[in-house]
Amino acid sequence: MEARRKMRFAMVCSSNMNRSMEAHSLLGRAGLDVASYGTGTHVKLPGPSLHEPNVYDFGTPYNVIYDDLRRKDPDLYKRNGLLPMLKRNTSVKLAPQRWQDNAGDGLFDVIFSFEERVFDLIVDDMHNREQRMLKNALIINMDVKDNHEEAGVGAKLALDLCQKPSLLDQHMLDGLGWVLLEGADEDWEEIIDDLIITFEKQHKRKLTYNMAFY
After folding, report:
1. Does the keyword Hydrolase apply (predicted)?
2. Looking at residues 39-45, what average pLDDT do you find?
3. CA-CA distance, 86 to 66, in Å (whole number)?
4. For 26, which of 7, 125, 155, 178 could close a Cys bridge (C-beta 3.0–4.6 Å)?
5. pLDDT, tens digit, for every residue of 55-103?
């Protein structure tokens, strides 16, 4: 019997710093095949005031950003959690990556976002890509506030959803692009709706989803 391909997950927020990286770290420790991205034009982190953010290019290593903030004001950035967050990030991967530039990273089965604006950017980007393989991807959004505490909660909920047996049993039929579940005859939209409704009732969190094709 042919071994089932391991599903691939992408966690996406605006700057690939907090929410997506907390989820990336947690799903990775759980043994899932996961990557993470941001959708912004630049990586933005809080600065000494609302009008003075710290702005970096995607691809700037987390340890470089860590050293820069520690040089600027170590007390401030330790107190607001940025230095511990960046130290965590360095243990997960090298640098923040931009979703719109990820075509070379391969295909993802489930793309999970933590903000409606990010979700919309992912959907638009996927629909604007040339669709060659008719390989489908499920895009799910759950709004999560961009702070360290909520990022931890959102990561646990993302892990719970990504570990749902019905989601992990998902097959992508080559050449057709339809989602089927083993032993299930229902339409794929009804199956996903049932999965999401069950999750929403259990966790009191609203989810939205869309389907896209590679």
Report:
1. yes
2. 98
3. 6
4. 155
5. 999 999 999 999 999 999 999 999 999 999 999 999 999 999 999 999 9
Say how far apart CA 66 and CA 61 lie, in whole Å.
9
Nearest-angstrom CA–CA distance, 74 and 68: 9
* Domains of the chain, earliest start first: 8-40+98-213 (3.40.50.2300), 43-90 (no CATH)
Residues in the chain: 214
Continuous H helices in 30-147: 62-72, 74-79, 82-90, 116-128
Give dist(CA 77, CA 82) in Å, integer: 5
Collapsing DSSP to helix, strand or coil, 2 comes out as: coil
Using the CB atoms, write b or e for 81-112: b if 16+ within 10 Å: bbbebbebbeebbebbbbbbeeeeeeebbbbb
151-103-111-46 Cα dihedral, nearest 10 degrees: 20
Contacts of residue 38, Cβ cutoff 8 Å, sequence gap at least 6: 12, 13, 14, 15, 16, 17, 20, 58, 96, 97, 98, 99
pLDDT tens column, 15-25: 999 999 999 99
Q: Which of 12, 11, 39, 6 is nearest to 27 (CA)?
A: 11
Residue 155: both structure tokens together: 């990561």
Q: At residue 183, does pLDDT exceed 90?
A: no
Say what the pTM is: 0.89
